[in-house]
Design brief:
The protein has 164 residues and is α/β, with parallel strands linked by helices. It contains 5 helices and 8 strands.
């Protein structure tokens, strides 16, 4: 039986908005990422969505939701969102923007309101696992919740190469 994980800003937001979610705790591994959590939980890494904090050329932060086994084409993303460039934030900067520790970053309940972009193919999945606001804790949701609660805008910026 999976343990119940304490309330996080992410699960608080989901509960306040009556979003249906399931809890999926797992043994966190430093730098294990979505591939590790997918393996631990027996899920396809394509359906385990990672939350990435990036920034544009003016250092304005943004959130990208990407398949666990794909990389983001920052060039394609920048073009689609009208930015000159997009790059990952340093971990300490990402922590400051989101209010979460890298490895436990959820798009829900972030400290700072940021624009959220979601790889469009994620929206075709029936259910995804996404970080629930702490390391070693994912929540299972309908991907449409990301659009409904976060205003996530679909983009096409996944690189074709598959991470293993």
């Amino acid at each position: 039986m999976a343990k119940h994980v304490s309330l996080t800003p992410a699960t608080r937001l989901l509960k306040e908005n009556r979003a249906i979610f399931t809890e999926h705790p797992y043994a966190y591994l430093e730098r294990g990422g979505a591939l590790h959590s997918a393996s631990e939980l027996g899920w396809d890494p394509y359906a385990v969505v990672k939350t990435l904090i990036l920034q544009d050329q003016d250092a304005k932060p943004l959130v990208v939701l990407m398949h666990g086994n794909r990389k983001v084409s920052t060039k394609n993303l920048a073009r689609q969102i009208g930015a000159k460039s997009v790059a990952p934030c340093a971990p300490e900067v990402a922590n400051r923007h989101s209010g979460y520790l890298v490895g436990g970053t959820s798009p829900f309940g972030t400290r700072r309101v940021m624009p959220v972009y979601i790889e469009s193919t994620i929206l075709a999945l029936p259910k995804i696992l996404i970080n629930g606001g702490q390391r070693g804790y994912l929540v299972g949701i309908d991907p449409q919740v990301c659009v409904d609660l976060l205003g996530a805008r679909p983009v096409q910026c996944a690189l074709a190469e598959v991470l293993t």
